[in-house]
């Protein structure tokens, strides 16, 4: 198994296509996005009500600056759908909804930049965005205006653009993504481009690395386990490329639960704290961008435990080592596995640039506890090497182990995020 995984890792490195390096994406992006915090992104039935406006954005930014997230590197404040007015101006320029952003986008960007933060927004490759935000008319997408919109975004001072795949004129994702990417590049302002949809997730096409800094690896991440599970399965696909300037993105992290901010929050939280810890741990070890879409103005205990965990964020940002990958399915008697990607006890692992290791051991089953053993040679560690094992989220030492470490009785959807250092 160990030899197989080492070969797989090398093969993936060798197959990487040249990344599009515009100077902004050496490390995975760390930030926040409006979509789930300020609307109900759980339902997936167009029952959206995006209330984002410049006052809320400032509050979120102030929270990021004061709650410890910015100290750990969180810096992007990203608008999702529904920020734009329903019509372009008389010159054909896209414009913000004046009732929500009366000061305009440039003023918002200037304000964020003065505070040491970065600003991002959302558009669509097609003629319309994906949602109306409860308003009667569609919101314009960028089709037919890629160059003009790129110029507008750059003039406003945008640092990040997420591009969706909605509206008419969705013809060829590679051609259209390339056109937008070139238009952004031509502005001279380095802007992080996130691709959201429009291409196959399995396998992800190579062209994405040449045009963008990150791309979603699955559909929308919603705040409930069956959906979280599909994203984690997306991180298991071995063909995904990831590394400096090219990051696999698992969509928003819903750590803490978006429902907590809604007036009608009768499902608060949607996921359990174990599930939030598991999604955070897999996104983190895989070096996914960590774009949080929960209410960071009110940090709950699990949000602090995850989002303010210095060691975890450092692992996520360790661009000099290969991002974590699925390294096996545990062979314990209670762990039923049919193949590498399908089983009750998947294990993600990576070697870090300082010579230490990290691993996430999961109970992927819906019923019953699982005891999950990580053989150290799956990480490339010699079987006679003693390792000091540390629980990253609980911030506690678990002792010294030789050959393997066993996590006993993990509850359904629970995981343990470990660091391992030669003792
Ligand atoms: C799509 C995207 C989501 C979000 C919404 C906004 O569903 O996948 O991430 O941006 O559109 O309308």
Can you describe what's shown?
- This protein has 423 residues and is an alpha/beta fold.
- It has 2 domains: 287 residues, TIM Barrel, CATH 3.20.20.70; 98 residues, Immunoglobulin-like, CATH 2.60.40.
- The chain has 11 helices and 18 strands.
- The strands form 4 sheets. The chain has an 8-stranded parallel beta sheet with strand order 7-6-5-4-3-2-1-8.
- Helix 5 links the parallel strand 3 and strand 4.
- The N terminus is likely disordered.
- The site of alpha-D-galactopyranose has 11 residues, from loops.
Q: Any low-confidence stretches, pLDDT <50, length ≥5?
A: 1-15, 42-48, 260-267
List the bound ligands: alpha-D-galactopyranose
Looking at the structure, what is the overall shape? elongated
Q: Number of DSSP strands?
A: 18
Query: What is the C-level CATH assignment of the largest domain?
Result: Alpha Beta
Helix content: 25-40%
Q: Beta fraction of the residues? A: 15-25%
User: What would the CATH topology of the largest domain be?
Assistant: TIM Barrel
The CATH superfamily label of the largest domain reads Aldolase class I
Query: Main β-sheet, in a few words?
Result: 8 strands, parallel
Q: Rg, please? A: 21 Å
Q: Compute the number of structural domains.
A: 2
* Arithmetic mean pLDDT: 90
Q: Structural class, please?
A: alpha/beta
Q: Please list the strands of the largest sheet in the order they lie side by side.
A: 7-6-5-4-3-2-1-8
CATH architecture of the largest domain: Alpha-Beta Barrel
What's the SSE pattern?
HEHHEHEHEHEHEHEHEHHEEEEEEEEEE
The number of distinct helices, counting runs of at least 4 residues, comes to 11
Could you tell me how far the N terminus lies from the C terminus, measured between alpha carbons in angstroms?
Answer: 24 Å
């Amino acid at each position: 198994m160990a030899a197989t995984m080492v070969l797989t890792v090398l093969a993936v490195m060798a197959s990487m296509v040249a990344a599009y390096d515009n100077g902004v994406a050496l490390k995975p992006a760390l930030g926040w996005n409006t979509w789930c915090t300020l609307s109900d992104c759980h339902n997936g039935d167009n029952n959206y009500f995006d209330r984002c406006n410049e006052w809320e954005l400032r509050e979120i930014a102030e929270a990021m600056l004061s709650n410890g997230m910015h100290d750990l590197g969180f810096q992007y404040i990203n608008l999702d759908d529904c920020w734009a007015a329903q019509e372009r101006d008389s010159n054909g320029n896209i414009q913000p909804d004046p009732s929500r952003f009366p000061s305009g986008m440039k003023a918002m960007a200037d304000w964020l930049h003065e505070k040491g933060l970065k600003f991002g927004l959302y558009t669509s490759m097609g003629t319309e965005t994906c949602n109306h935000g409860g308003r009667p008319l569609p919101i314009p997408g960028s089709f037919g205006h890629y160059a003009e919109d790129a110029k507008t975004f750059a003039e406003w001072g945008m640092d990040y653009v997420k591009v969706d795949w909605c509206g008419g004129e969705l013809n060829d994702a590679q051609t259209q993504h390339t056109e937008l990417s070139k238009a952004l590049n031509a502005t001279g302002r380095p802007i992080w481009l996130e691709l959201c949809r429009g291409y196959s997730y399995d396998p992800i096409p190579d062209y994405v690395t040449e045009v963008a800094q990150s791309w979603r690896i699955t559909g929308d991440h919603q705040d409930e386990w069956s959906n979280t599970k599909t994203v984690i399965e997306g991180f298991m696909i071995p063909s995904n490329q990831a590394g400096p300037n090219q990051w696999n993105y698992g969509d928003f992290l819903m750590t803490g639960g978006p429902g907590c901010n809604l007036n009608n929050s009768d499902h608060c939280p949607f996921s359990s704290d174990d599930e939030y810890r598991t999604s955070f741990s897999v996104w983190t070890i895989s070096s996914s961008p960590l774009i949080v879409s929960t209410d960071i103005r009110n940090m709950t205990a699990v949000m602090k435990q995850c989002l303010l965990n210095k060691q975890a964020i450092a692992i996520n940002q360790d661009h000099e080592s290969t991002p974590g990958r699925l390294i096996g399915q545990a062979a314990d008697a209670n762990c039923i596995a049919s193949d590498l990607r399908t089983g009750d006890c998947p294990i993600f692992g990576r070697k870090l640039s300082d010579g230490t290791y990290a691993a996430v051991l999961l109970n992927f089953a819906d019923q019953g506890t699982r005891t999950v053993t990580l053989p150290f040679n799956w990480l490339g560690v010699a079987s006679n090497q003693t390792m000091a094992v540390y629980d990253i989220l609980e911030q506690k030492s678990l002792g010294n182990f030789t050959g393997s470490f066993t996590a006993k009785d993990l509850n359904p959807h629970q995981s343990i995020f470990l660091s391992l250092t030669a003792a």
